[in-house]
Amino acid sequence: MKKIAIFHWGVMSVHSYYLALQLARHFHVDLFLYTPAYNNEHGILYKLVHDLRQKVNVIEFKPEQKDLFAIRASRLGTIIGRPLNNFCINPFLPQRTRKLFFPGNYEHLITITQPSLFWLYQTDKHSLGKTIHYSLEVEKMSDPGISAGSCKGALIKQEQKLLPNIRALLIQDRDRAVALCNGTLHSNLSFVLLPVSVPGETIITRSVYLHEKLQLPASKKIILYYGAIYQERKIDELAKAAEKFNSDEYVLVLHGAGEFSKLSKGRNKVKTSNEMVPFEELYKLCSSATIGIAFYDQSWPNTQLTAFSSEKIARYLQCGVPFIAFKNDNYQGLQSAFKCCELIEKFEELEHAVEKIMADYERYRSAAFAAYEKYFRIENSIRPLIDFLKSI
Q1: pLDDT tens digit sequence for 68-111
Q2: 8 A C-beta contact, residue 53 and residue 28
Q3: From residue 280, how far is each of 18, 43, 207, 225, 352 by CA, in Å?
Q4: How far apart are the first and last CA of the chain?
């Protein structure tokens, strides 16, 4: 059985968790995990890592007392605009890793996000040739809030520098690959596409989770937005558009952690909820909706190119919930393959999109299930990666 080492720096994400579990069904997997000082052993991080240990050999590194100096130096470097690149990941980490990591033991190495790629590079520069780099975020120096003098800026630059030298790039779709590579795909770099996916069969039975939680009549059709609550997601604009709906048949539910503005509260056709739902129970939330909302900021590639990189879309489709998103080429690619969504350019079109879906709802619902099975069910979507790893 081939051996794979996965490098993961930082908070364990559900995407990394699903990836490691699926690969462990076909390969021996060692997970090299670095947990920074600001991460505690509770909540979802602790649970995911605990679950992984049942199937994966987890080799976890935690900051030692001397590492506190490195963390302070990193912060100081950010303030004065001169980050020391290796301080961005903890300068003692590569040395500690070399005592336990032996590159010759592995056929493949997988790094998840920029800090992990840089961690591996600092540990063993010769390992890039058998490294598959998993890009979860397409981040550019031109993105808002990215400073050339910050650790984030330094890691983005390192990622761009190292990309031409790795074995393959694992990314959600071709549009994101082109964006990450600044419009030109490296001729010597292989690409493996893996949309953000979730495990399990389609969920046909609808739940009444939100109806019961918010005391809504069973006849109400729920239009659901769930996720981060901040203005780049156009929450207030969405609430105002829903309030203008001619029909009282629908209610917009805004569900997420964070503070809702006064504009989103106190509306007859809008309900808000911020109770945390365990990730393994998100299907109950999504399957209680009739239509989903997947609005992302259109200002830069990471949030614009999200048709295949949004967990909420995967979960909507698993539950047979058609969704509405902003129109762009990335989403039109998904829509042309499966009529599982409607796309709008402005909020004045929202009610028409809802009515269009409802007029042919069962066809949209069937398309949602079909799209999930092809693109967003990880047992299926991961096959190209497994075939790639077995072929080399």
Answers
A1: 665 665 555 554 444 445 567 788 899 999 999 999 999 999 99
A2: no
A3: 12, 13, 15, 18, 33
A4: 13
- Whose tokens are 């600001």? That residue is 38
pLDDT tens digits for 67-76? 666 566 555 5
Residue 158 DSSP one-character state: H
300: left (phi over 0), alpha (psi -120 to 50) or beta: beta
Question: What is the distance between the alpha carbons of residues 225 and 257, in angstroms, rounded to a whole number?
Answer: 12
pLDDT digits over 199-234, tens only?
999 999 999 999 999 999 999 999 999 987 776 667
Rounded to the nearest 10 degrees, what angle do helices 361-371 and 350-359 cross at?
A: 90
Residues of the chain with pLDDT under 50: 42, 79-84
CA-based angle 289:291:294, to the nearest 5? 110
* Cα-based distances in Å from 165 to 72, 187, 202: 32, 11, 39
1 within 8 A of 109, measured Cβ to Cβ: no
368's tokens: 């949602």
- Pure H helices in the chain: 14-23, 43-52, 67-80, 93-98, 114-123, 151-162, 174-180, 209-213, 235-243, 282-286, 301-304, 311-318, 329-337, 350-359, 361-371, 378-381, 383-391
Q: What one-character DSSP code corresponds to residue 43?
A: H
- For 53-58, the CB contacts below 8 A with 24+ separation are 55/20, 55/21, 55/24, 55/29, 56/20, 56/21, 56/24, 56/29, 56/30, 56/31, 57/28, 57/29, 57/30, 57/31, 58/31, 58/33
Helix (H, G, I), strand (E, B) or coil at 1: coil
- Give the pLDDT score at 278: 82
- Residue 349: its pLDDT value, please? 97
- Alpha-carbon gap, residue 178 to 150, rounded angstroms: 25
Is the C-alpha dihedral spanning 228, 196, 285, 361 positive or negative? positive
Q: What is the pLDDT of residues 181-193, one digit of tens each?
A: 988 777 788 999 9
Looking at residue 267, its pLDDT comes to 67
Instruction: Phi first, then psi: give them for residue 186, nearest 5 degrees.
Output: -65, 130
